């Protein structure tokens, strides 16, 4: 492994007075960390903050989540988007209870086997809950890696470079620091003059951005307003309050009857809603 002591010193000096205070950073409870990582997969920190607290209070253990009706989990998830994540989270809780004695595992392969868990989430749980020397590559860190090395990276190369950077015994703070660096300085429109890696970085905000198209670097999402995602969300929100007659679906979704029923069939096939006779409801 290369000597990155200078890199580590620069990052740790920079992050010490700047580390963002987030409630899931104050815990090492594996389930609580896991919930935060699933929420943050496709949702910004500000939207996840209040929901995480409510969710943890309602479902403080995997067992609590596994025993709840899926409809209750979906109600608490309302506002975070992509409700399939809530379904996968409960499915993961059931696996944890049935196969791991109710304790979130600290093994990479066992974490990857949980529903809805990919390489980032699995390694994040290892680093942030168990403080193991695991490197995480989220969209912020992927952007930092590509720019620092000055080239577009494939997934395997990005993970290898991230692994090589992790200081032994300091993975928790190191990963958090890189994430904060990408979230606050090395943003899509970067503030290079404020970056602690400026003198060693290959790219300095000039020319073609090597992070564009690099593995793990997210692209702008399609507009939410007027989208099918918004229509699906409207229906699920209404179902959190009461059952909905099928004939009312198009109006609630603000879609044509044909499009509304297609979206309903998708939600049913995903297990997010159920139909009983002429009414829709949460599971």
List keywords for this structure.
three-stranded antiparallel β-sheet, Endonuclease III, domain 1, mainly alpha, Arc Repressor Mutant, subunit A, 283 residues, 14 helices, 52% helix
How would you describe the overall organization of this protein?
The relative contact order is 0.12. The chain has helices at residues 5-15, 30-39, 45-58, 62-67, 70-77, 84-100, 108-112, 119-128, 139-149, 155-165, 171-184, 228-239, 249-253, 257-269, and strands at 244-245, 274-276, 279-281. A three-stranded antiparallel β-sheet has the order 1-3-2. Among the domains are: 29-128, Endonuclease III, domain 1, CATH 1.10.340.30; 228-281, Arc Repressor Mutant, subunit A (Orthogonal Bundle), CATH 1.10.10. β2 (274-276) and β3 (279-281) form a beta hairpin. Helix content is 52%, strand content 3%.
Which helices and strands appear, and what pairs or packs with what?
Blueprint (H helix, E strand, L loop, with lengths): L4 H11 L14 H10 L5 H14 L3 H6 L2 H8 L6 H17 L7 H5 L6 H10 L10 H11 L5 H11 L5 H14 L43 H12 L4 E2 L3 H5 L3 H13 L4 E3 L2 E3 L2
Helix pairs in contact: 1-11, 2-3, 2-8, 9-11
